[in-house]
Amino acid sequence: xxxxxxxxxxxxxxxxxxxxxxxxxxxxxxxxxxxxxxxxxxxxxxxxxxxxxxxxxxxxxxxxxxxxxxxxxxxxxxxxxxxxxxxxxxxxxxxxxxxxxxxxxxxxxxxxxxxxxxxxxxxxxxxxxxxxxxxxxxxxxxxx
Length: 144
Fold this sequence. Notes:
By secondary structure, this protein is mostly helical. The protein has helices at 22-42, 44-63, 67-97, 103-138. The protein starts with 21 loop residues before the first helix and ends in a 6-residue tail after the last helix.
C-alpha cells in the first residue's frame, strides 16, 4: 500500500526530544531533590524518619556494622523515606481531588499511611536485631 506510513515509536529519529540526555537527567534529578527537600522541610513525619536515620547512622558507626548490615540499614532508610514521600503525594493529591471529607478518600489516605507504618515498624525491628546484641555487649549485659 503506497499511501501507508509507518508510525515511529517515541524516541526515534522523528522525535525531536532525546530519550535520555544530560540536561533531561539534570532536570529530573533536580526535581526529585527539590521534592525531597520540600518533604524534609515541611513534613513532621519525614523529619522524624530523617532524625531516626541519623541516630541509627551514628550508632552504626559507633558499633562498627559490617558492609552487609550497612546495606540493609541504607535500604531500610530509603524504603521508609520513599514511602513517606509517596504517602505525602497521595494525601496531597487526594486533598486536591476531593477537598471535602469523603470516606473513600479517607480510606485511601489511611492505606498510604499504613504502608509507611509497616515499613517503619519493619525498620525498627531490623534495628533491634542489628543493634540490640551489640548494645547489650557494650553495656555489659550480653554474652561475651
